[in-house]
Amino acid sequence: MKPLITTLFFCLVLFNAPVLLAAGEGSATGTVAETIDAGGYVYLRLEEQNQWIAANAFKVNKGDRVQYSGGMEMSDFYSKSLDRTFESILFVSEAGLLGNGAADKPAKPMTGHGGDDMQINKRISKQAPAPGEIKHLSGGKTVADIFTESDQLNGQVVSLNARVIKISKHIMGKNWVTLQDGTGAEPDNRLLATTQEIVTPGDTVTVKGTVGTDIDLGFGYQYKVLLEEATFSEGLE
Length: 237
Fold this sequence. Notes:
The chain has 237 residues and is mainly beta. The chain has three helices and twelve strands, in the order H-E-E-E-E-E-E-E-H-H-E-E-E-E-E. The chain folds into two domains: 2-97, CATH 2.40.50; 143-234, CATH 2.40.50.140.
């Protein structure tokens, strides 16, 4: 079961090169500002980019220089094991200590499969709408409504007006869209929708989809609420 979940969840290109790497094309480096071990994985916050990455666990300390390559970004990602939501986290295919002659054993590559488009999705973030800026959809819901009423709405189709904040493409065969409408309190002011459609960050849209709750993608990674099979129309209804 675990290999199957790994394949479905990460959808990454296999890498066979050694993980203790010299700096090179297609890779990035950073200095570890914070490290958390959980569930066989290590979460690292990199000082230069202020970016969180996750990799198979290996021995690493604050101040170490690391190199990583490959992977995918997940937005508004909730880790049940940490009880924490990451606005953005990059699940990398390889990570290890940077330099030659390091005594610590580097991480093994995460396994998976994918195609040429299964690369890091560079995202464009748009400013969240202010309260009252997005017109409420008549007969529809708000982001706050969906979170507050999630138990009752589970499995139901809902519609709402919102702004597209981010999109991460081609992850597990779907596009993942972050929506905000100026309602709700952090972290329940951002709704993640899965779709086959392409939308543009900054667009104001009417969204229709099925509410799903307590979505478990394996490895303890869960989403409190997802709007699944979403469809979009431009402008507000």
